[in-house]
Amino acid sequence: MPADIAESQPLLEVIDLYTHFDTPRGVAHAVDGISFTLDRGRTLGVVGESGSGKSVLSRTIIDILSHDGSVLYRGKVMFEGRDLRELSQKEMREVRGREIAMVFQDPMSSLNPVKRIGKQITEVLVKRMGMNKASANLRAAELIDSVGIPDPEQQLKRYPMHLSGGMRQRVAIAIALAGEPKLLIADEPTTALDVTIQAQILDLLRKQQRERNMAVILITHNLGIVSGYTDDVAVMYAGKIVERCETQELMNRPRMPYTEALMKSAPLLSDPPHTRLDAIPGLPPNLLNVPDGCRFHERCRYATDRCLTELPDLTADGSSEHLYACWNPLEVKAEALS
Ligand SMILES: Nc1ncnc2c1ncn2[C@@H]1O[C@H](COP(=O)(O)OP(=O)(O)OP(=O)(O)O)[C@@H](O)[C@H]1O
Ligand code: SF4
Ligand SMILES: [Mg+2]
């Protein structure tokens, strides 16, 4: 592919993606018609309450859901112009880890407890990058150093159980970076960690993302994290993206009542301690039986009759790139426009 075409094309283009699970109790609409693009070097935050479909979306992108027939897919996942859903399992394994890597909430899910850390990293370098043993050893030490683990030579000899949760997550990030991916998907990478360690890991991800011009999808239920660490945000609710725009724009003038409710329920990094938070009343809908109309209507204080029957599309706010799916969007406050 000519370099100029490759540069102008989005790195990732998700087009009308559906992931449904055929369960004994009915079909769960976990991801239900999602589209977005992600350019090289950008960080997209995906935010929403538990069960909104964030992890299923990321697992669908890198195709690690079961292939037992209970998962029903539709739509396209274009990565550098190739439809990942058309690739064979073998081709997809090569994309995974090399071009797209993933970091999970629990670092132990990607670490082998009975193998030394050094071995786990060098194996990736030999297998995925075709390095010889000696170069892989040197590179592993560099990687461990770059993720902020002190005394790399000694650490490489240790087993995961000898490390703290934060250090394990750093190792998992080093392994993810070993294949020099163009896209890193981090699914709640700091949720299991103490607050101070959370900030360190997020700073580390941002540093690596900038140095490598790597695109990142950062999945979180916390808008505070999104506001400090992402360029763009997609807000998910019950399997759909309900608002999408640049992060600053979202924080300054949310248009979707669900986003407003999320903001009031999550502490921002800039909030003073003990700021009062309002939990969102009610629960998200059962994905086996989603309501007609706007899926947020049972919990929305702005709902009108139309919201009960007609599902709003995700559409642009005038000529801007601020997309939201709401019949009664929030007014833009005058100070947000100045
Ligand atoms: N294998 C499966 N079979 C049936 N339903 C599933 C399966 N995996 C996920 N789901 C359902 O899909 C929905 C979305 O789940 P998902 O894990 O993506 O949510 P999430 O937004 O990542 O939540 P959390 O913040 O708790 O991680 C949930 O209702 C979940 O029960
Ligand atoms: S469409 Fe209606 S119910 Fe849905 S968020 Fe907007 S106002 Fe609320
Ligand atoms: Mg999840």
Keywords, please?
338 residues; alpha/beta; Rossmann fold; eight-stranded mixed sheet; 22% strand; globular; binds iron/sulfur cluster; binds magnesium ion
Task: Summarize it.
With 338 residues, the protein is α/β, with parallel strands linked by helices. The protein is built from 13 helices and 12 strands.
In words, what does this structure look like?
With 338 residues, the protein is an alpha/beta fold. The chain has a domain at 41-51 and 89-99 and 181-337: P-loop containing nucleotide triphosphate hydrolases (Rossmann fold). 35% of the residues lie in helices and 22% in strands. It contains 13 helices and twelve strands. It has helices at residues 3-8, 54-61, 89-98, 117-129, 133-146, 152-155, 165-178, 195-212, 223-229, 247-252, 257-265, 305-309, 334-337; strands at 12-23, 26-38, 43-47, 71-79, 82-83, 100-103, 183-187, 215-220, 232-237, 240-246, 315-316, 323-324. The chain has an eight-stranded mixed beta sheet, sandwiched between helices. Helix 4 (117-129) packs across helix 5 (133-146) and helix 4 (117-129) packs parallel to helix 7. The longest helix has 18 residues, at 195-212. It starts with a helix and ends with a helix. 39% of the residues are buried. The model has no long low-confidence stretch (mean pLDDT 91). It binds adenosine-5'-triphosphate (ATP), iron/sulfur cluster and magnesium ion.
